[in-house]
Automatic annotation (TrEMBL):
InterPro entries: 4Fe4S_Fe-S-bd, 4Fe4S_Fe_S_CS, Fe-S_Ferredoxin
Keywords for the protein's UniProt record, in alphabetical order: 4Fe-4S, Electron transport, Iron, Iron-sulfur, Metal-binding, Repeat, Transport
Domain of life: Archaea
Protein's UniProt name: Ferredoxin-type protein NapF
PANTHER family from the UniProt entry: ADENYLYLSULFATE REDUCTASE, BETA SUBUNIT, L-ASPARTATE SEMIALDEHYDE SULFURTRANSFERASE IRON-SULFUR SUBUNIT
Organism phylogeny: Archaea, Methanobacteriati, Methanobacteriota, Stenosarchaea group, Methanomicrobia
Gene Ontology molecular-function annotations: 4 iron, 4 sulfur cluster binding; metal ion binding; oxidoreductase activity
Record domain 4Fe-4S ferredoxin-type: where: 1-26, 29-57
Presence of keyword Metal-binding: yes
C-alpha cells in the first residue's frame, strides 16, 4: 500500500502521469490511489519531488 502525506503533497500531478496502471487520480486538490489497480511498482514514490508518497511495509 502506498501512503500519501497530504501535508507534503503539492498536487503537482507527477505521480499521476508516471503510474503505469493509472491507479492515481487527481480529485480537486488531492490525489487518490486506487489500491485495487496499484501494482506497488513505486514509480510514484520515486518521482515525487517532495517525498509525499511512501510504500508501507
Amino acid at each position: 500500500m502506498i501512503k500519501i502525506d497530504r501535508y507534503r503533497c503539492g498536487c503537482c500531478g507527477a505521480c499521476v502521469t508516471v503510474c503505469p496502471t493509472e491507479a492515481i487520480d487527481m480529485i480537486g486538490m488531492w490525489i487518490e490511489i486506487n489500491e485495487d489497480k496499484c501494482n506497488r511498482c513505486k514509480a510514484c514514490v520515486n518521482i515525487c519531488p517532495v517525498g509525499a508518497l511512501e510504500q508501507e511495509q
